[in-house]
Specification:
By secondary structure, the protein is α/β, with parallel strands linked by helices. 36% of the residues lie in helices and 18% in strands. The protein is built from 12 helices and 12 strands. Strands 1-2-3-4-5-6-7-10-11-12 form a 10-stranded mixed beta sheet, with no helix packed on it. The chain has a two-stranded antiparallel ribbon with strand order 8-9. Strand 5, helix 4 and strand 6 form a beta-alpha-beta unit. Helix 4 packs parallel to helix 5. About 15% of the residues have low confidence.
Length: 339
């Protein structure tokens, strides 16, 4: 296992002053709690107020959150970048971090990673933090079993892409089990849709069998369910029902969907939502249900001669597809588009 824990402290002397201005960066990226429970505890107690960059992963505990809250309450907060995995926090620790975030007036980047989202405490932490900071969060990673349960919960907190206007990085990882509702598939498609297209998912009643004349579909479908799953507003509609400020969202640069229980036809909905995205730097789609037709559609959706994707990783998990001439020809076609 590779550990990436680290502390760096910079001291700046201004105007001949003998009192330095401290700036501390803390990185904690262990996947397990360290054997020494006091690890980093003294640092947060004495220098938490000077932390500028904090990357707090799985073993960030209530004790550290409390110390950070106490020292920033006394001396203020200098945090400008916060990447927080609150999976080991109780409600008490989350409340401390909410206070820290609220008093961090210079905070520019806010990223959340929720591991084991299938656990009740993590779901409570998710609800507390996302309901409060959905308008500010820049990166969101969700990982856990039974995605069909917790995706519906995050969907309830952030029904549309407009509820996550600053989101630039989005990742979901599960075990591939369960069945997503059409509404959840629709929600995923709305989140990954390039903001320039102005597509917002609209809810439909269960007995709806026809499209409204004022809506468009993100892809052609042959069944009523697929039609309902892909219904979206056009840019004109959205602009007429919201202000330009409300409809302004950051385009996604990183997308990862791994082992989310999407069937092949549902993958088509998500892939079609990515159509003509020119902002992606990394795209990772992994699923045993990701078919050759899905890959062909993805290649079709990538704009030619624009090199929109710096790194494209498709995990199909099918040796047959990887060895087929069709697979090789599609990879070649993709490379030609990205040249």
């Amino acid at each position: 296992m590779s550990y990436k824990d680290g502390i760096s402290v910079a001291a700046e002397f201004q105007g001949g002053s003998i009192s330095p201005i401290l700036s501390t960066n803390v990185t904690m990226e262990r996947e397990r709690l360290p054997q020494d429970p006091t690890y980093f505890s003294q640092v947060f107690q004495d220098y938490g107020w000077s932390i500028s960059i904090l990357k707090a992963d799985y073993w960030f505990t209530d004790d550290l959150a409390e110390k950070l809250n106490q020292t920033t309450e006394e001396k203020g907060s200098k945090i400008t970048f916060l990447s927080l995995n609150p999976s080991s926090l109780t409600s008490k620790g989350v409340e401390c971090m909410i206070k820290v975030i609220d008093r961090s007036q210079g905070l520019q980047r806010l990223l959340f990673t929720f591991k084991n989202v299938h656990k009740k405490q993590v779901q409570e932490n998710l609800k507390q933090l996302i309901s409060r900071y959905c308008k500010r969060v820049n990166g969101l990673k969700l990982q856990g079993y039974s995605a069909h349960v917790w995706i519906s919960q995050i969907k309830a907190l952030c029904p549309t892409r407009l509820d996550l206007p600053e989101l630039e990085s989005f990742a979901m990882t599960s075990d591939g089990n369960g069945q997503l509702s059409p509404e959840c598939v629709q929600w995923i498609a709305a989140i990954v849709t390039p903001s320039s297209q102005g597509v917002v998912v609209m809810p439909m009643s269960s007995d709806s069998t026809q499209l409204s004349t004022t809506t468009t579909t993100t892809m052609t479908a042959t069944t009523t369910m697929m039609t309902a799953m892909t219904t979206a507003m056009t840019t004109t509609e959205m602009m007429s029902t919201s202000t330009s400020e409300e409809s302004s969202t950051c385009p996604l640069s990183d997308i990862q969907l791994t082992d989310i229980p999407l069937q092949s036809e549902e993958w088509q909905v998500v892939i079609k939502a990515l159509n003509n995205s020119t902002t992606l730097k990394e795209l990772y789609l992994g699923s045993p249900n990701f078919s050759m037709d899905n890959f062909k559609l993805l290649v079709d959706c990538i704009p030619a001669n624009s090199n929109p994707v710096f790194r494209l990783c498709i995990n199909i998990r099918s040796p047959y597809l990887e060895r087929s001439d069709e697979w090789k020809s599609e990879v070649a076609r993709l490379c030609d588009k990205l040249d």
